[in-house]
Write a structure and sequence with these properties.
4-stranded antiparallel sheet; 5-stranded antiparallel sheet; minor pseudopilin epsh fold; about 160 residues; about 30% helix
């Protein structure tokens, strides 16, 4: 006796598929707003990492070329200038027009500002032994998301880190 109504069927019903789609839709709707708040935070972190890399590059070139390299944080224009310190290296300053600029000034995104710089003259000079001219911090602030990241420099070792 082979009865077809007792045979096991394999697959999903239309109702089961619709319930799964509704659940996925509700989850996606709940995740959307938090995802849109997450994007500006990630953009600021990428911006801060880019500035951190310029500091690390200045330190590496100072060691490799046995010369002083520095990074100037222009807080007024929210840009940084990567330069070789050739004029009056004992002053530990960026002298516009005198020091050799390595590439063009790097501008921040329009909503990113430099705040609360504790760096002397907003400049970090790296020496051939890897140490830095000053210890301090500079804060990157995003005016849209109100997020902040801080770049810290330790003078004795020239170590830079992002917090």
């Amino acid at each position: 006796m082979n009865n077809k109504r007792f045979q096991k069927t394999v697959g999903f019903t239309l109702i089961e598929m619709m319930v799964a789609i509704v659940i996925l839709g509700v989850l996606a709707a709940m995740a959307g707003p938090s995802f849109s708040r997450w994007i500006p935070k990630m953009k600021l972190k990428a911006e801060a990492r880019e500035k951190l890399n310029y500091l690390r590059q200045a330190r590496s070139r100072a060691i490799a070329e046995n010369s002083q390299y520095g990074v100037y944080f222009n807080t007024g224009n929210s840009e940084i200038i990567f330069f070789k310190d050739v004029t009056n290296p004992q002053l530990n300053l960026y002298e516009a027009g005198s020091d050799s600029i390595i590439g063009a000034p790097i501008e921040c995104e329009s909503n990113v500002l430099f705040n609360n710089s504790t760096l002397t003259n907003d400049v970090v000079i790296f020496y051939p032994n890897g140490s830095a001219s000053t210890s301090g911090q500079i804060e990157l602030h995003d005016s849209e998301s109100a997020c902040e990241h801080t770049i810290t420099v330790l003078a004795s070792t020239g170590r830079v880190r992002l917090e």
